[in-house]
Amino acid sequence: MRNFYIIKVLESVQWQISGENAAATILEMHPNTLRSRMNKLGIRRAITAFKLT
Predict the structure, then answer these.
(1) Cβ-based neighbours of 24, under 8 Å, separated by 6 or more
(2) Alpha-carbon distance values, 29 to 17, 49, 50 (Å)
(3) Which residues contact 14 (CB under 8 A, 6 or more apart)?
(4) Which of 45, 50, 39 is nearest to 13 (CA)?
(5) pTM score, whole prediction
(6) How far apart are CA 43 and CA 36, in angstroms?
(7) What was the pLDDT predicted at 13?
(8) Which of 10, 12, 13, 48 is 20 to 30 Å from the Cα of 25, by its Cα?
(9) Contact yes or no for 52/45 (Cβ under 8 A)
(10) Cα 39 from Cα 47, distance rounded (Å)
């Protein structure tokens, strides 16, 4: 499975890995398997900085 597809699925569910309608469910794999695959492929969620006013 290509990491581009995994990233697109993760973005579509706001990086929710487990639960109903989450990335692991869509990709039809166990959440721990998805986490392991993400680690192996170096997929990490980017940290977004918010400006406080």
Answers:
(1) 17, 18, 30, 31, 33, 34
(2) 10, 31, 33
(3) none
(4) 45
(5) 0.80
(6) 10
(7) 96
(8) 48
(9) no
(10) 16
- Taking all residues of the chain, what is their mean pLDDT, rounded to a whole number? 90
Q: Which two tokens stand for residue 16?
A: 């929710």
- Distance CA(51)–CA(36), nearest Å, equals 33
pLDDT > 80? residue 24:
yes
Chain-centroid distance of CA 52 in Å reads: 27
Output the six-digit token pair for 11. Answer: 């973005």
Measured distance CA(6)–CA(27) in Å, rounded: 8
